[in-house]
Amino acid sequence: MNTKHHAATNRRRVAAITGAGSGIGEATAHRLSADGYDVAILDIDQARAERVARNIADLSGSALPIQVDVTTKASIEAAFLAIEEWRKAIDVLVNSAGIINVSSVTECSPDDFRRVMDVNVTGTFLCAQRAAEGMIAQRYGRIINLASISAERAGVGRVAYGTSKGAVASLTRQLAMELGAYGITANSIAPGPVSTAMTEKYYTPETRQAYESMIPARRLGTPSEIAHVIAFLASEEAAYINGVMLPVDGGYLAAGVGITGAVHS
Predict the structure, then answer these.
(1) Which residues are catalytic, by number?
(2) CATH number of the domain that residue 65 is part of
(3) Of 112, 128, 198, 239, whose CB is crowded by the most CB atoms within 10 A?
(4) Residue 217's domain spans which residues?
């Protein structure tokens, strides 16, 4: 896959990844760096961003760690200015920053609901809006947002998280509609259950077993498996894929009733 150079220039491509200090964001940073991108490591935790950037540098990659609060437009502006001073333009934006709140419809507080929406939806919007400025100017770009299977399939305790991810999927379609004429694609990934530091604390042995029994692949996914699909959507080969939400879930959304009569899956 030739991903090292912009089609219209002779420079290395630049990818900015939010939430890149851990989990799927970190795996994506490593994958895109391996593909030849200069990678901006954006995370609310500066120490985590610096750790990932050092790890990439140790592998002969080029990475810039930046502390950012995606819910604050001024923080995003400062981050993007730093990237543009470092490498001028962003070719790929991966919105991986996100949080989970687990509480029922009757127990989720307005503050908790608002916080999840601020990070997962408003943060994605603000970063995409800012990235679109440079992408429109160069008439090229890839925006890849992290949605979730929770955007399609409700779950107990997911009133804030599932609603936010449904909004991310809808926002992605809107971005695709309005930016497509400028050579920009916008797509979202819908990971199924994936083992990350953020999700592990919610997986008891019982819940993990329940998930695995519902997934045709009979296992949870890994951050690197999500990162590989993100890398594809960032590539030239995906130039005509626009406005989709792509499940990467081991068949979870495709699955139905696991047992019918005496026939077992």
Answers:
(1) 161
(2) 3.40.50.720
(3) 128
(4) 14-246
